[in-house]
Amino acid sequence: MTLAALFDQIEGPDDQARVSAYLEVLSRKDSPAEVYSQWSRFAAMLGHSSNHIRSIGGQLFSHFAASDPEGRIWGLWERWKAVATDKMFVSARHTLQASHRFALAGEEHKRRLLDYYQERFRSCTSEKNTTLIRYDLQVCLREVYNQQPDPAVATLARRLILEETDPKYQTKYKTAWRKVPG
User: Fold this and answer.
1) DSSP string, the chain
2) pLDDT tens, residue order, the chain (182 aa)
3) Contact between residue 169 and residue 121 where contact means Cβ atoms under 8 Å apart
4) Nearest CA to 131 among 170, 82, 90?
5) Residues 6+ apart with CB under 8 A from 9
6) Which of 176, 84, 104, 101 lies closest to 138, judged by CA?
């Protein structure tokens, strides 16, 4: 099935077909030519009227980053960040939870992602789900660390945990870092 046909299924009404198509698209993420052939559709997903489609677009963004030799992904960075803070919390959360894969695309990707995590950890205090967001950010930081062990990532995570004023939540965030020395 072509990538265009898979995107048709993702945007279609059948939930099961959407999930199957999403998984098939993920299996093709290492084919830049194919991804680029549908770039405008992929980009449109980040602003789609359906929160399900926005969520899928946000997740694909992180998966596609390493398959983007032309650097087109940077033109969508702000749109991705908008999905990661979507008014539909589940869409934002799914997007955020997949974001650690973005760091695999290279050092600049990793740097921008870590900067984003730091900014998001600090800026989410006025949101309804602050604790969940902060915990997800800690899990994402841990995933980045697991992919490429870097003491600077662990240091950043621990520094952010110390910014939490409630000891109960500090303890919760620390659970993402069990069994990591330091």
Assistant:
1) --HHHHHHHHTSS-HHHHHHHHHHHHHTTT-HHHHHHTHHHHHHHTT-SSHHHHHHHHHHHHHHGGG-TT-GGGGGHHHHHHHTT-SSHHHHHHHHHHGGGGGGG-HHHHHHHHHHHHHHHHHGGGSTTHHHHHHHHHHHHHHHHHHS--HHHHHHHHHHHHH---HHHHHHHHGGGTT---
2) 899 999 999 999 999 999 999 999 998 877 878 888 889 998 999 999 999 999 999 999 999 898 888 899 999 999 999 999 999 999 999 999 999 999 999 999 999 999 999 999 999 999 999 999 999 999 999 999 999 999 999 999 999 999 999 999 999 999 999 987 76
3) no
4) 170
5) 17, 18, 20, 21
6) 176
Q: Measuring CA to CA, which residue among 109, 132, 112 is closest to residue 121?
A: 132
Residue with tokens 């998984």: 23
Nearest to 113 by CA among 83, 139, 144, 82: 144
Residue with tokens 């677009």: 57
